[in-house]
Design brief:
Rossmann fold; 19 helices; elongated; alpha/beta; ABC transporter transmembrane region fold; 582 residues; 2 domains
Amino acid sequence: MSRSLKPLVRFLRPYWRWAVLAPLLMLFEVAMDLMQPRLMQRIVDEGITPMNMPVVIQTGLLMVGLAILGWFGGAGNGFFATKAAQGFGADLRGALFRHVQSLSFANLDRLETGQLVTRLTNDVTHVQEAVMTLLRILIRAPLLMLGGLVMAVLTAPSLAFIPLGLMPLLLLVVVWLVRRATPLFGQVQARLDGVNQVMEENLSGVRVVKAFVRKAHEVLRFGRSNEDLVATTIRAMRLMALMHPAMIVILNAGIVAVLWFGGVRVAEGSLQVGQILAFVNYLQQTLFSLVMVSMLIVQVARANASAERIAEVLRAHPEVQSRPNALRDVALDGRVAFEGVTFSYHGSGGAPVLRDVSFAVEPGQTVALLGATGSGKSSLVHLIPRFYDPDAGRVTVGGYDVRDLDLATLRRAIGIATQETVLFSGTIRDNIRYGRPEASDEEVIAAARVAQAHDFITSFPEGYDTVVGQRGVNLSGGQKQRLAIARALLVDPAVLILDDSTSSVDVETAARIQVALREARADRTCILIAQRISSVLHADQILVQDEGQIVAAGTHRELLAASPLYRDIYESQLGGEDSANG
C-alpha cells in the first residue's frame, strides 16, 4: 500500500468486518471458478469421447451447481465491499469537511476554494472506488492468476513453458504503461482543480460577468481550462487504452501456441483434447488476472494521487487554535486594546499590513476606523476575534490576551458583520439565528428592529419565513447587510464589529442603525469600518489609518483641527457642509 493511502486506512477500521468478509467470499468464488476447466476436461475426456452420457450429465450439473455457489460468493463480495467502501468514503468526506472547518483563515488563504471542492468530491470518490476495487479484486486477481497457473501446469505439464514465457512479456508491457500513466493522473486532478476554480469564480461572480458583458471572455477562459483537462485525461487514457489490445495479442498468441504444440502432443497420444481445452481456459484466467492486477495497480496509482491531495489537507495544521490551558469560564467585557501590533499575511517574511499599532477602546465606546482602501482596516479587526495572530505585539479583549482565551469563548463575546455579506440557504429567521439557533422569535425580531430590517422583512408575504435564495439572490445588497447586522446582534456580543457593513444601505437608514445600536446596549463596544465619513461623525473615537499605521486619533472635531489627512477625507466627501454641523 502506498504511503499516501496508509493514513487513510483508519477510516476503514469501523467497517473491518465487511472488509474481511468481502475478500473471504471472493476467495470462495475463485475456488469455484478454478474448478470449472477441470470439470470441462472431464466432460470431454471421460464423457464425450467415450460417449458416456451419465458422466456428461453428472459433471454438467456439478458445474452448474458450483457456478451458482460461486455467484453467491461474488454477489456477497460485491455487497459487503460496497458497504465497506461507501462507509469509508462517507467517513473520510466527513472528516475532511470537519478538518476544513477547523482550519484558520491563513490555511484557507493557501488552499483555494476550487481545490477544496475537488478534494472533497472527486478525490474522495477516487479513493473510495480504489478501496472497493481492492476489496473485490485484491484477492480475486492474484489468486486466480496463481491458481490458474498452477492448475495449467498440473493439467498439462509439457505446455507449462507457454504461460511462463508469456507472463513476463505481459508484465513488462503493464509496468511500462503504468509508469508512464501514473504521473498523468496527478496532472488530471490538478487540471480539474483549475476547471472548478474557474467555475466557482463565475458562479459567484455571474452578475459582474453579465454587467461587464464578459461572457465571451469567461467562456474562453473556461474553455482553456476544460481543454487542458481533456488533453491531459486523453494522454493518460490513451496510454491505458494500449493495455487491452496488448493483452489480447499476447493471449491469442498463447492460444495459438497451445493449439500448435498441444495438437502435436494429442496426435502423439501424450495429451487428450479435454486437457487442451482446460489448459486454454486456465491460460485465459491467468493472463486476464494479470491484466486485472495491472488495472488494480493503475487505479491504486490514481487513487494515490488523490490520497496525497487529501492527506495534504488533513496534514494542514490550524495556525490559530486554542491553547491546551486556554481560559474558558471568563466573562469578557468590551475593552479592546492593541499593544504594538505588527501583522503580515505571510508571516514575518511578508510585507506588514499593520505596523506598530497601539490603541485602546473602553466598554460602551463606539470607535471608527477610517482610511483609504488597503490601509489595513479589515486586517486590524480580523485580529480581534483571532482570525489571524499578529507577528508582534498583542491584542486584548476584556483585559485578556486573545491568545490565552479559548477560541469559542472569545468569539462568543464578539459579533461581526463582515465586508462581504454571506447568507445561507434557509429562511430569513434561520439566517438571523445562525449564531444562536436557540434564540426565541421575540429575540430575532428585536435584533432585526435594531438593524432596521424588520420593516422590509414583514413586507414579504412569508415574513421571517421567507426563503433566502442562493447567496441571498432575492434580496438587495442593503437588505443582506441589515440581516448580517441582525445576525451579529442576536448573539448579544460585548464587542460588535461592523466591517463596512452599511456600504449598501442609504445614509438615512445607516444613521437610524447607529442610533438604535447606541440605545440597544449601553456597555457594548462598537467598532466601525466605513467608507462614508458621515457614518462615523458621532463616534467616541475615530482612528485614521494610513499604510498600516494609526496616524491620527480623536473625535471628529479634534481631527478636523489636527489631522490634515482626516480633513482631506472630510472635505472630499462633505466639503460643502459646515464642519460645525458634523
